[in-house]
Amino acid sequence: MEKLNEFLGSVSSFLWGIPLLVLIVGTGIYLTIRVGFLQVRLLPTALRLVFSKKHDKTAEGDITQFQALTTALAATVGTGNIVGVATAVVLGGPGAVFWMWFSAFFGMATKYSEAILAVRFRVKDAKGQMAGGPMYYLEHGLKQKWLAVLFAVFGAIAAFGIGNGTQSNSVAGVVKSTFGLDTWITGAVLTIFTALVILGGIKSIGNVTAVFVPIMALFYLLAGLIVMVMNITAIPDAFATIFKMAFSGEAAAGGAIGAAIRYGIARGVFSNEAGLGSAPIAAAAAKTDLPGRQALVSMTQVFLDTFLICSITGITIVMSGMYKDTSLAANELTSASFGHFLGDFGPYVVAIGLIFFASSTIFGWAYYGEKCFQYLFKNPSLLIIYRIAFVIMVFIGSVVSLDLIWTFSDITNALMAIPNLIGLLGLSGVIVYETKRISDKLKEEKEAAKAAKSN
Fold first, then answer.
1. How does the record say this protein sits in the membrane (predicted)?
2. CA distance 31 to 40
3. Looking at residues 330-339, what average pLDDT do you find?
4. Distance CA 306, CA 300 (A)
5. Which of 17, 381, 391, 449 lies in the 20 to 30 Å Cα band around 369?
């Protein structure tokens, strides 16, 4: 088992090496240019769409645009926002935070593009529900079914690991260390809660995440803002340190600037999932008149995940200076940093945040996994088998060590990203066309509103 874990670790390190990271960021840069830096031009519009109460009830889809966003955010905002950021700082130094922002900026264009294709090439399944994502735009758009099958296989498997067992294990571990509750008790409660949510399908998941996600995000953001307000004079120095270390390589593993770049980009991608192809599966279920409208909403996932939540973690760590303590492991660094400012209450903030984040990830990835499974096995009656197996895995993950599964999940995530990125590059012309459609539509709506106001 030890040799197998070592072998899989080597495969994971190879797959998540420089070539894949260059492909992910390079795709984001290419798409950014093709859509005319849309993540800058239309970010205010995208944020307005997120919180708009106006919904086209006649549009096809299963859930609202906001529910599609929160479902995707539920899966995206997880342990990566707390432990992942700390890992980047430990291995790459404070400069890694800058490179997380760098990859997220271009990742917004990638996430936008994924959602456009997901809605454009979505289909109705046997139950009349929407099904979409990389497997559908790879088959129907790129006309490469073999790539679609590969993505679906890796996605269905990855859901059990990175989106399930590793998350429940994190929840059970933090509950035991913080509150002293046995892992099997946490596992049982989490398993029951998961079953109640996911057995109802996407509408049930959407209803829960629409409430769950805003609460968990606001709780963590509020705690971080309290830290910053209380120590506002330290913020300029923290930003100065981040920007300086991003290009100097100081305080990075081995003192090399490459470490800051590599770990910053890698952890950023793990956190916001731009390019992996997971989030567009939720986007495909949204009620929307144009693919571009939902794509703008989906684009805000990266902004909210990395530029807000991850920044709270990263800046708090840098302000505290606790990253200089080499005795602290990555999973201890965030707690120690919040504790530095908030005393005994600090670790509780991180623990509660991690419980919420990891639990929500399970709900989102349950939907991703079952849609991949549904693509491979068209028989709807088999879906209940996948859901039951997924629920069982929640409990197993809570009570056993999952180092092997975590490594294997890293591998399947990388293998998901490769066909998805091929699809984005190959269908970039469709993305440009749909971008023009939504741009023209928004301009038309703006002029109509202006005319109505003048009358």
1. Multi-pass membrane protein
2. 13
3. 85
4. 10
5. 17
Q: Which of 292, 290, 383 is nearest to 42 (CA)?
A: 292
Short-list 103, 99, 108, CA closest to 42: 108
Q: Where are the domains of the chain?
A: 17-50+57-434
What angle (nearest 5°) sits at the alpha carbon of residue 11, between those of residues 371 and 302?
50
The alpha carbon torsion through 364, 305, 402, 156 (nearest 10 deg) reads 40
User: Which is higher by pLDDT, 206 or 150?
Assistant: 150
Average pLDDT over the chain reads 86
- The answer to which of 79-93, 272-286, 334-348, 374-388 has the lowest mean pLDDT is 79-93
Asked if 94 contacts 257 with a C-beta cutoff of 8 angstroms, the reply is no
The reported pTM is 0.89
Cβ–Cβ < 8 Å for 384, 153? no
Place of tokens 């994971």: 12
CATH of 17-50+57-434, one of 2.40.50, 1.20.1740, 2.30.30, 3.30.300: 1.20.1740
Which H, E and C letters describe the chain, residue by residue? CHHHHHHHHHHHHHHCCHHHHHHHHHHHHHHHHHCCCHHHHCHHHHHHHHHCCCCCCCCCCCECHHHHHHHHHHHHCCHHHCHHHHHHHHHHCCHHHHHHHHHHHHHHHHHHHHHHHHHHCCEECCCCCEECCHHHHHHHHCCCHHHHHHHHHHHHHHHHHHHHHHHHHHHHHHHHHHHCCCHHHHHHHHHHHHHHHHCCHHHHHHHHHHHHHHHHHHHHHHHHHHHHHHCHHHHHHHHHHHHHHHHHCCCCHHHCHHHHHHHHHHHHHHHHCCCCCCCHHHHCCECCCCHHHHHHHHHHHHHHHHHHHHHHHHHHHHHHCHHHCCCCCHHHHHHHHHHHHHCCHHHHHHHHHHHHHHHHHHHHHHHHHHHHHHHHCCCHHHHHHHHHHHHHHHHHHHHCCCHHHHHHHHHHHHHHHHHHHHHHHHCHHHHHHHHHHHHHHHHHHHHHHHHHHHC
Nearest Cα to Cα of residue 362 among 175, 135, 208, 149: 208
Q: Which two tokens stand for residue 415?
A: 């293998």
- Report yes or no: 308 and 47 within 8 Å, Cβ to Cβ: no
**pLDDT for the residue numbered 214:** 78
